[in-house]
Design goal:
Layout lengths: L1 E4 L14 H8 L8 H12 L2 E6 L4 E4 L6 H9 L4 E5 L4 E8 L7 E9 L5 H46 L3 H11 L8 E8 L5 H12 L4 E4 L6 E6 L2 H12 L5 E4 L3 E2 L3 H15 L6 E3 L12 H12 L7 H16 L2 H8 L3 H15 L6 H17 L14 H8 L2 H12 L8 H10 L4 H8 L3 H15 L8 H13 L22
Parallel strand pairs: 10-12
Antiparallel strand pairs: 1-4, 2-3, 2-6, 4-5, 5-6, 7-9, 7-10, 7-11, 8-9
Helix pairs in contact: 1-4, 2-4, 4-5, 6-7, 9-13, 10-11, 10-12, 10-13, 11-12, 13-19, 15-19, 16-17, 16-18, 17-18
InterPro entries: CdaR-like_regulators (IPR051448), PucR_C-HTH_dom (IPR025736), PucR_C-HTH_sf (IPR042070)
Pfam families: HTH_30
Organism: Streptomyces camelliae
């Protein structure tokens, strides 16, 4: 097949004409008509030809694959030839380079049109103008792709910053944030918010949160929950703007933490999720964690710190960074599931489970037991709130059940526990008995149903009803559930668990599934 450069193929858009094809071509520039496949199909029909649009690497973008002279196609893709015409006695082929928007002569795509009849002036004009429109559409698509890549990279950076905060690496988090959001994490404290909507609306809500906070907050699409957006905001104004945003968007809910040190971002996140459960039952659809009395606040401060230090004492032999990583992972794993914690931290669920198994082995804790998880959660939160206890100071034995029982035996705690669980007594379905049986069965509905002699679905329905009465998230686990378990320990409806019953000589042994 002979080839010759085609000098009359510079893409120029039509500014008028007496044929209908000009208007049809311009219609492909309208927002609703911008589609490479439709435009190539139109060109094929209009010129009675077979049309192929391929990128500079030979990948088909639209139309039908054509056997082309590889050397000519490479010359056009490289920008050495702008266009070419070929013929072999059977078909006539025109090739046009679609200019790449970047620097250099290389083409972004190659348009090939083959038909049995020679190209007259009318067909050549349609081809040239169509190439111009294709250049605009390809440029628009590339800009859109670049925008999506930029937004994805920015979202990945936000998530990376959050994950660094979750494991208490505030120095690295500030270093990463400084390049894109100068001053965002300059303060030592911040509040964490979780905004909830449907999974389908989550991206729009995240954009709305970013627009509303105007760069004053770290906005992250939660990697664990499809409908959640996590917002870390140093300024109190961030909370006000988010509440206004939620008020204007039906079906959305907002939970917030109190102000916490940046190193306690993981704790604040759990608090925000807990507050979110309360927000679902409030007409304003928002709640703040600090609005509720917590059982730890009713314990002797020095006593609970001494007890928590005793529980966590086996971890003190670990290097600081290892200890911090294990505790941060375990805290999230207790608050949520291993799968969710893995997504938040950006590690595998096997890594989360291995770290939790190691902590469980060191503490002598059976994390398959709900009451043990609640007690471990109390110890971790105590250290998170007050910092590590003086390693050289006094500490009770990690398995000192009597020490914990004494802490839980105060009049203030009993009043709190009876007040909390007593709300269930007013329901005729005996929700309190169901909740007691379910917590004793380590949150297994089927086992609780066997104990009560009812169907498992009845247990689940009672639990959902109890969540509304208590304004606490129970079936999702976490702080709300553990505090409810502590209330049962205080009232004596559950026995105080023992720690230290597993072999501490094998810190990596698995203790839960």
């Amino acid at each position: 097949m002979a080839a010759r450069p085609d000098e009359d193929t510079a893409p120029v858009l039509p500014y008028g004409g007496d044929g209908a094809w000009e208007q049809q071509l311009l219609d492909h520039l309208r927002p609703a008509g911008r589609d490479l496949g439709r435009l190539v199909a139109w060109l094929a029909r209009t010129t009675r030809a077979v049309v192929c649009l391929q990128d500079a690497h030979g990948r088909l973008l639209a139309g039908e694959r054509l056997p082309l002279d590889a050397a000519v196609a490479r010359d056009i893709a490289a920008g050495r030839v702008a266009a070419a015409a070929l013929e072999d006695g059977v078909r006539h082929v025109r090739l046009v380079g679609i200019r790449h928007p970047g620097p250099g002569p290389a083409a972004g795509a190659v348009l090939a049109v083959a038909r049995p009849a020679p190209f007259d002036r009318h067909a050549a004009e349609i081809l040239n103008h169509t190439a111009g429109v294709l250049e605009l559409l390809l440029r628009e698509r590339e800009l859109a792709d670049a925008g999506r890549r930029l937004r994805r990279a920015t979202a990945d950076l936000r998530l990376a910053i959050l994950q660094l905060l979750m494991v208490e690496d505030t120095v690295s988090a500030r270093r990463v944030a400084a390049g894109l959001w100068p001053g965002l994490l300059e303060e030592d404290t911040a509040r964490v918010y979780v905004v909830e909507t449907s999974a389908a609306e989550r991206d729009r809500l995240a954009d709305a949160c970013a627009d509303s906070t105007e760069g004053r907050a770290l906005v992250v699409r939660c990697p664990a929950m499809d409908g959640h957006v996590i917002v870390v905001g140093p300024s109190a104004e961030v909370g006000e703007r988010l509440r206004s945003l939620v008020a204007g968007h039906p079906g959305t809910f907002l939970g917030g933490s109190p102000r916490q040190r940046l190193a306690l971002t993981a704790t604040a996140y759990g608090q925000a999720v807990t507050a979110l459960a309360v927000a679902r039952f409030r007409p304003e659809r928002s709640a703040v964690y600090a609005a509720r009395t917590r059982p730890a606040q009713l314990m002797d401060p020095a006593g609970v710190r001494t007890w928590a230090a005793g529980v966590l004492r086996p971890l003190d032999t670990l290097p600081h960074h290892v200890r911090a990583e294990l505790l941060a992972t375990t805290g999230l794993g207790l608050e949520f599931t291993a799968v969710s914690a893995a997504k938040v931290l950006g590690v595998s669920r096997n890594t989360v489970r291995a770290r939790m198994d190691r902590v469980a082995g060191l503490l002598g804790a059976d994390f398959s037991r709900l009451a043990v998880r609640a007690v471990a959660h109390l110890a971790l939160n105590t250290e998170a709130a007050h910092g590590p206890y003086d390693p050289g100071g006094p500490a009770g034995h990690p398995a000192d059940r009597d020490g914990l029982a004494d802490l839980l035996g105060t009049r203030a705690l009993r009043t709190w526990a009876e007040g909390l669980l007593g709300r269930l007594d007013e329901d005729g379905r005996d929700l309190r008995a169901t909740l007691r049986a379910w917590t004793a069965a380590d949150a297994h509905a089927e086992r609780a149903a066997q104990t009560l002699g009812v169907h498992a679905q009845t247990v689940r329905e009672h639990l959902r009803a109890a969540e509304g009465v208590l304004e606490r998230r129970l079936t999702g686990g976490g702080t709300d559930l553990y505090e409810t378990v502590l209330a049962h320990l205080v009232t004596g409806e559950l026995p105080v668990p023992e720690l230290g019953t597993t072999n501490r000589e094998e810190p990596d042994s698995a203790v839960h599934g």
